[in-house]
Amino acid sequence: MTLEQGKCNVVIGQSGSGKTVLMKSIVGLLEVDAGEILYDDRDFTRMGKRKKQMLRKEMGMLFQGGALFDSITIEENVMFPLNMFTNDTYNSKLKRVDFCLERVGLKEVNKLMTSELSGGMRKRAAIARAIALSPKYLFCDEPNSGLDPKTAIRIDNLISEITKEYNITTLVNSHDMNSVLEIGDKVIYIYQGCKCWEGTKEEVMHTDNEALNNFVFATKMAQQIKKI
After folding, report:
1. What averages of pLDDT result for each successive group of 10 residues across the chain (228 residues)?
2. Are 203 and 10 in contact (CB under 8 A)?
3. pTM (2 decimals)?
4. Are 150 and 111 contained in the same domain?
5. What residues make up the domain containing 175?
C-alpha cells in the first residue's frame, strides 16, 4: 500500500486482522520477514541501526493507550523526544513543549501528572508529544479507544487538522466507522492479514467487496446498539 502525504490514511479491519502488527512493522517495533518499507524511497528494512535512529526523528507515534509516563509531568512527557533526539537548550525545548500543548488545546497543564488528566486530555497530551519533533510521518493506533463519542470526534478533528496543517503523512488504525467517514481521506481494509480493498471514504459505503460490506454493516450495527 502507498500512504499519501497530507492525508489521513485509515486502516480498518476486524480485531486480529493485522492492523497493529502492520503499524509496529512500519515504525520498526517489529522486524518483517519479507518485503520492503519505503520512506520516500528510503528502504527502512535494509537500514542499519544508526540510520533507523535518524529516520525515527521524522516519525511521531500515538499509541492506543496514550503511553504517557506516569512518574513524570506532562511537560516532561512532551519534552521526552526532544531530550532524546535534539541538543536544543532547555528554554528552546520548553518553548516547543508549550507550543505543542497549546496546539492541542492544553494550556497550563505542564506541571500536572498523567493521573490528573481525563482520558481525552491524555490523548491530546500524547498527540502533543507525537508532534514535538515536527514529524513528517504520524502513526496513530486506535486513537479513539476508550473515549466517549464527543471526545472521539474532537480527537479525530485534531489529528485531521494537524495532518493538513503540517502536510504530514498520517496513518490511523481504527475500527470506528464514524472516524473513517469523518477523517478517512484514504481507506485501506485489511482482512486476515492481507490488503483486501482500498479507496475513499465515499467509496467505502458503496463497495461490492463482500468482506468489507460485512465489516461495515457489523460495525455500524454495534455502534448503534452501543448508543442505545
Report:
1. 93 87 91 92 91 90 81 92 90 93 88 89 90 93 82 87 93 86 90 89 84 76 50
2. no
3. 0.86
4. no
5. 1-58+141-228
